[in-house]
Design a protein that fits this description.
Length: 362
């Protein structure tokens, strides 16, 4: 176990081609959904996310290299970094930037994901799926903690500019279920998901039909577009996202949608639409289905020899770092992983707003 580097390096950041924000710089180990930057509020949040990422994907076994997560924090952005040497190859002095190391390598230190601090005059802009009126930010944080779908919140206090929206608590959620970053139709291969991650995301309830409305479009109200191998998988993504009220699917893209009032529908060939099934038992679409002639492109961690798509799927399920796979009929199995972190999509300075995270991990 290496020694603990607990000190922060103020006003400095490490840069090199290996630490760039291009996808190639991380693809050997893992891919983060979206940019290589993560929106956060503090150096504490930055190092916590760095630790979480390290816990899931940096310390790799077998023939994969051991490494650590490095980070730099500046203007609400956390830049997660990686080098095989575990050290930044170059350090530049820059005003307003704080850098450091993951604490995952510290002796006798358990991973901590509790972010109990709240941030005054800071708005976690967007990502809200519901709101309610409460007395203060403590009640708002408690509401977020008790709602399993809530990851973070924003509360408008008596200093907020619009009186009618004061004392309003906004519960927020970003998608964290790992999905392939890109899909392609190619012959002589099969793709699918780890049964482990799908089982952990199943919903409970009564058996009920999974109605899909073919050649029907629900236009507008999109809040996220996700590559999806089937309309059934699109329905699964909508069901596990508390913000999703309906969806449309076409050409291997799932359009997650949200509307609080009414919405329209229109006939459109090749589009399948529907609603979440949160009060039904899981359709097991994620678990049971393999997708012939669809490549889950990118996000490779490593490849192994395999005799069939089933043996490839079993290898993925048995590997805690594997989220999905692609099996090529020449006998090669590509195990894949993406890392998603539940953090705000955007952070802005806003007077009269208090923001923070749930306390379920505290």
């Amino acid at each position: 176990m290496t020694s603990c580097r607990s000190s922060l390096q103020m006003r400095s950041t490490a840069r090199s081609p290996a630490l760039s924000t291009t996808p190639a710089s991380f693809s050997h180990f893992f891919d983060l959904i979206g940019p290589r930057t993560t929106t956060l509020l503090s150096t504490q949040g930055c190092v916590t996310v760095c630790d979480v990422v390290s816990a899931f994907c940096i310390v790799l076994e077998g023939n994969r290299s051991h490494s650590v997560c490095l980070w730099s924090f500046s203007q609400f952005y956390c830049y997660l970094k990686h080098t095989d040497s575990k050290k930044p190859p170059k350090i530049n002095n820059r005003k307003g930037i704080t850098s450091g190391y993951s604490l995952k390598t510290c002796k006798d230190r358990k991973r901590q994901t509790c972010l109990s601090a709240v941030y005054n005059d800071v708005d976690f802009w967007g990502d809200d799926y519901t709101s309610l009126y409460v007395a203060d930010y403590e009640d708002c944080q408690m509401a977020c903690t008790k709602d399993p779908g809530c990851q973070f919140f924003s509360f408008t206090n008596q200093h907020f500019e619009t009186p009618q929206h004061r004392n309003r608590c906004w519960l927020k959620h970003t998608r964290v279920f790992p999905s392939p970053p890109k899909l392609l139709r190619l012959n002589w291969l099969t793709s699918g998901f780890s049964h482990r991650i799908c089982t952990g995301s199943s919903t409970e309830g009564n058996n009920c039909p999974y109605k899909l409305q073919t050649d029907t479009n629900f236009p507008g109200y999109d809040f996220e577009q996700v590559p999806s191998p089937s309309p059934e998988y699109c329905q699964f993504l909508c069901t596990i996202h508390p913000r999703c009220t309906f969806y449309s699917y076409t050409r291997m893209v799932c359009y997650l949608k949200n509307a609080k009032d009414g919405w329209s529908h229109a006939s459109k060939e090749g589009v399948t639409s529907g609603y979440p099934t949160r009060f039904c038992k899981s359709s097991d679409e994620c678990v049971r289905t393999s997708y012939e002639n669809i490549d889950f492109r990118g996000a490779d961690t490593y490849s192994i020899a395999a005799t069939s798509s089933q043996s490839c799927q079993e290898a993925c399920t048995s590997d805690p770092d594997c989220h999905f796979y692609t099996y090529v009929y020449r006998g090669e199995c590509f195990l894949k992983q993406v890392i998603t972190v539940p953090v705000p999509s955007k952070v802005v300075i806003k007077k009269g707003v208090v923001s923070g995270f749930h306390l379920r991990d505290c």
